[in-house]
Amino acid sequence: MPSPIGHTLASWFLASIAERKIHPRDGAMFWAAAMIAGNLPDVDLLPAVVLGLEAVAPFHQGITHSIGFAAVTGFSFGFFFRKRGIPLSFGWFFFAALVYAHVLLDSLGDDTFPPIGVMLFWPFSSERFLSPVSVFPGVKKGSLTDLWDPHNLVEFGLEAGIFLPLIGALWLWKRARLKGVSRAKLGGPA
Where are the domains of the chain? Predict the structure, then answer.
């Protein structure tokens, strides 16, 4: 499973695509909400702070890692941003896509701790899914010292190696497009 770093970078990429629909005055709030939405399915790990990881592991990647959860939370975010001038249909779809992107990325990870896989299609099915090809080796989550474990550092590097080039390419494309628009407005060659 990707780490919060990977989920945040994936959310950043998706938010970069959608930011044209956002009014500049709501930009910071939109970006914060996008990063939260992209990591929200892991809210099921919060009880581990008190109970320990072993106690909550059987409940991880359950309902919060599903299309149903994505739809409900996407609607909540969409409703919030509707009052800020973003159409509910766009906000709902965008934030649901961010949440569901987390779920899809988790389905591409190495999962060896039961229950295996994510409930992609809950509430329509409680079946768990896991890609036969593991893109993300997953992170060790035992303690804060595991953060610096060589295995985790490799995972962080892999995630950065996947998502940062996508973010950079999108930024370069937007910049080139903006320069083309500016030249066209000035009467020069686009």
Answer: 4-186
